[in-house]
Amino acid sequence: MTWPWRVWVILLTLLAGFTTAFGTQAGMSSAWWPVAGLWLAASLASFGLSVWVAGSLILLGVFMDFVGEAPIGAWPMALLSAYGVALVAWDRQATSGVPVMVAEFVAVIGGLIAAGVALSLAAGIAGHPGFSRDGFMTDFLLTAALYPLIRFVTIPASIRDARR
After folding, report:
1. Is 23:138 a contact under the CB 8 Å cutoff?
2. 43 neighbors 90 (Cβ within 8 angstroms)
3. Exposed e or buried b for every residue in 90-119, given b needs 16+ CB within 10 A?
4. Which of 10, 60, 99, 109 has the fewest other C-beta atoms within 10 Å?
5. Could you report the per-residue pLDDT of 105-121, keeping only the tens digit for each?
6. Is residue 21 assigned to a domain?
C-alpha cells in the first residue's frame, strides 16, 4: 500500500470515528445511526489484505468500545470479522469470476452477520446483557442500505472500474 493510500485509510478511519462519536451523543439513543466502521470493513477489503486497514479497524474498534460502553475488544473483533468476510468475498470475485454485485452483497451482508455474531460472543463472554444500543438491528439495516452510496466515497473510481 502506498503512502497516499495509507493516508486515505487514516482519513476514512477518522471520519468513521467522528461519525460514530456523533451518533453516540446524548439524546441520539432513539435515532437510527449507521455503523461507519462496517462500511470501512466492507469497502476497504476490495483493495485486498492490508495490515494498515486491519490496524485502523482495530483502533476504530477500541474507540467504539469506549464510546459505546461495549466490552473491550468487542468492536475490534466485530470489525475484523466483517473485514475477513469481505476479503473472502472480494477474493472469490477476483479468482472465480463471481459478479461484482454478488461480492459486494456478500461483503456487506456477510460482514454484518459476522460482526453481529462477534458482538454476541463478546457480550456473552463479558457477561454483558446484549448490544450497547437497543435499536442495534435497525442500525445494521441502515448501514447496509447506505452502503451503495458510501462506497463511491470510500472506493476510488479506478478500483470500482477495475472490479466491473
Report:
1. no
2. no
3. beebeeeeeeeeebbebbbbbbbebbbebb
4. 99
5. 999 999 999 998 888 88
6. no
Check whether 32 has a pLDDT greater than 60. yes
C-alpha cell at 120: 454476541
Q: Provide the residue range defining the domain that includes 118.
A: 35-162
Whether the Cβ atoms of residue 123 and residue 130 lie closer than 8 Å to each other: yes
Do 103 and 93 touch, CB atoms closer than 8 A?
yes
Tally of structural domains, the chain: 1
- Check whether 129 has a pLDDT greater than 70: no
Count other Cβ atoms within 10 Å, centred on residue 72. 12
Residue 124 lies in a domain: yes
Question: What's the rounded Cα separation, in Å, for the pair 148 and 43?
Answer: 10
Predicted local confidence at residue 135, as pLDDT: 64
The residue assigned the cell 468500545 is 65
